[in-house]
Design a protein that fits this description.
257 residues, alpha/beta, Rossmann fold, 8 strands, globular, binds NADP nicotinamide-adenine-dinucleotide phosphate
Amino acid sequence: MSEQTTHTNQNVALVTGANKGIGHAVAQQLAARGMTVLIGARDAQRGEDAAAAMRAARGDVHAVTLDVTDPTAVQAAARQVEQRFGHLDVLINNAGITGSGQVSPQDAYDQAPSTVDLDMVRAVFETNVFGVIAVTNAMLPLLRRSPAPRIVNVSSHAASLTLTSDPDGPFATLLPSAAYNPSKSALSALTVQYANELRKDSVLVNAVAPGYVDTDSNNHTGHLTPAQGAAVVVRLATIGADGPTAGFFSADGPLPW
Ligand code: NAP
């Protein structure tokens, strides 16, 4: 993103991890609604490539280099947004990793709680949880300048303690995980705590589960397209002042925590 200052009344949205997958589709849909969209990408070139492709499709889209686990990069990104736009209306905390999430050839699952590598758990929490706090706190001063600030945390059905603790429920086949699933449950808790703190400031904060989406993160085994998964994210990013806060939603409606 250039340093050129264009403080604007235009609605500005930042999507972390938007160079591919669900975040990319969210960015496309927000741009199609006329928002100025900032593609957060930890790799500058991947971010520029994604932004250029969206500009070619006539969106007002810019890349911001942003590794959510790098405090210096997070602060630099906030400064760039401040200098260029002066405010932020929508923050989508989408960047996330599974840590692995794969079943090995020996059929041993590397996130099984009893055998998990603690360094992997730390790495997953660093991105999926601590990264969200870092980015949110860096962007909050800019969000507070918006007349209608919205924060959407991209979570997962796997975050739901209610759904995953039901041995007869539709998620009973999910493999036990000490990394990804708890990181998303922690994201749920954070969503509620931020929503509670920011309610008085009319910042609406919600978590969404996009469903099982065809992306690199699951080796393209998902049955939804990124555009389908993105739709609920965009819906919560664009709710009106009477919309929910401290909620958890899928495309089908509210989800239990
Ligand atoms: P994806 O295609 O792998 O995209 C993940 C994005 O996050 C990529 O842009 C990746 O950047 C970025 N990222 C990873 N670590 C980052 C970091 N430290 N800083 C900044 N960006 C980082 O995965 P996805 O399926 O679209 O996942 C997006 C979100 O949806 C995640 O939070 C995921 O947990 C959630 N989700 C996905 C599904 C699903 O079925 N796909 C279901 C439920 C929830 P690089 O390109 O540089 O790696």
